[in-house]
Amino acid sequence: IMENTYNFVSVKNKNVRYLGRWTVDSLARSYFQSGVEFYFTGKLAGVDVLCEGRDCALTVSVDNEKSFVVPYRTDGVLLLADNLGKGIHHIAIHADFQEKLPVFKAFVLNEGGETVQGKKRPSIEFIGDSITVGYVRDGIGSTSLTFCDNVARQLDCAYSILAYGGITMTERPTAADCTGMINRYFKLGPICAGEAQNIPWDIHNYIPDNVVISLGTNDWDDSWDKTGYYDRFEGDYISFIKRLKQVYTDTRFFVSTPYDVIYKKTAEKIRNIVKSFDEVILLEAYRGIKPQMFNAIDHVHINETAHSIVADNFASEIKKYGKF
After folding, report:
1. What is the separation of C-alpha 22 from the centre of its chain, rounded to a whole number of angstroms?
2. What is the pLDDT of residues 245-289, one digit of tens each?
3. Which of 10, 179, 251, 306 could join 293 in a cystine, given CB atoms 3.0 to 4.6 angstroms apart?
4. 109 - beta bridge partners?
5. What is the largest CA-CA distance in the chain?
6. What is the pTM of this model?
7. Which residues, other chains included, contact 124 with Cβ-Cβ below 8 Å and sequence gap of 6+?
8. CA 198, CA 224: separation in Å to the nearest integer?
9. With helix as H, strand as E and coil as C, how does the chain read?
């Protein structure tokens, strides 16, 4: 198809739904692993991308089918779906990893195709660390591999991921992000996002229907326990949830324990945290996970099979108690 047969759709199109952290003006700029989705007619869909000198990649799902990854290194039209049948289709697009941060100039349909109004799918925001990001082993990590994407497709939900590898809940100078999620959540971008990492984010801008928090894996080890940082973990976690609930008044909250075979102390603290709230659901996400499903080098990150098990555990509880 020649470029002049494309229908370029404005990033401000009324039928385009942004999920998570975006700035939208002449460009749509994503932060963390945020998402965008829309319904459309026609046989193809894509995006007009701006790389800004970076290697980029997207996780894409068409008609809620299994997600796939589309890498790119140059500016211009990037086709994400083609040869589609007649009728109305749906596309969901996410940054493929925490550093990818896509920038779109426009969405692309074939000539005669158009965005249409469709059902507003329930939304889930996943808050976490490298496991939530989708890191599975050295050099391998993708939104398409994470339990988040799997849960969303099982429940036919829209989703965003606000996570970063190595992040803790509590401020800690030796952590990957020393500000901790207790502060990072209220900034526009992650620490890899240049000046956006320091720009305040008003959480009224995007309110998810459901929030799933999976933090704590990075908040404890023997050395940190002796410094006193870990003593703040429970109080900071409670303060974080309370601050979100002040704005997300109609949102359903879920909090997950880490793998308690390794992180028994942290898991117990998280169970106590959940008991502090009347309407926060505890998720024991790692039920059914076996030791051989962990990264053989770091013994922290779970493989693709384990992500599927976690997704099934999450999906069954969110389906029962979530806001739909």
Report:
1. 13
2. 999 999 999 999 988 777 888 999 999 999 999 999 999 988 888
3. 306
4. 7, 45
5. 65
6. 0.95
7. 148, 151, 152, 155, 157, 158, 159, 160, 208, 209, 210, 211, 212, 318, 322
8. 26
9. CCHHHEEEECCCCCCCEEEEEEEECCCEEEEEEEEEEEEEECCCEEEEEECCCCCEEEEEEECCCCCEEEEECCCEEEEEECCCCCCEEEEEEEECCCCCCCEEEEEEEECCCCEECCCCCCEEEEEECHHHHCEEECCEECHHHCHHHHHHHHHCCEEEEEECCCCCCCCCCCCCCCCCHHHHCCECCCCCCHHHHHCECCHHHCCCCEEEEECCCCCCCHHHHHHCCHHHHHHHHHHHHHHHHHHCCCCEEEEECCCCCCCHHHHHHHHHHHHCCCCEEEECCCCCCCHHHECCCCCCCECHHHHHHHHHHHHHHHHHHCCC
Q: What is the pLDDT of residues 93-111, one digit of tens each?
A: 999 999 899 999 999 999 9
Q: Which two tokens stand for residue 130?
A: 């490298």
Rounded Cα gap, residues 39 and 55, in angstroms: 28
| CA torsion, ordered 183, 237, 21, 43, to nearest 10 deg | 160
* Vertex 252: Cα angle to 37 and 133 (nearest 5): 55
- Determine the Cα angle at 49 with ends 47 and 50, to 5°: 165
Name the residue type at position 156.
D
CB atoms under 10 Å from CB of 7, counted, come to 17
* Residue in the block written with tokens 């898991």: 267
Question: What are the backbone angles phi and psi of residue 56, rounded to the nearest 5°?
Answer: -125, 165
Q: CA–CA separation, 213 vs 302, rounded Å?
A: 17
What CA–CA distances, in Å, run from 165 to 33, 39, 235?
Answer: 12, 32, 22
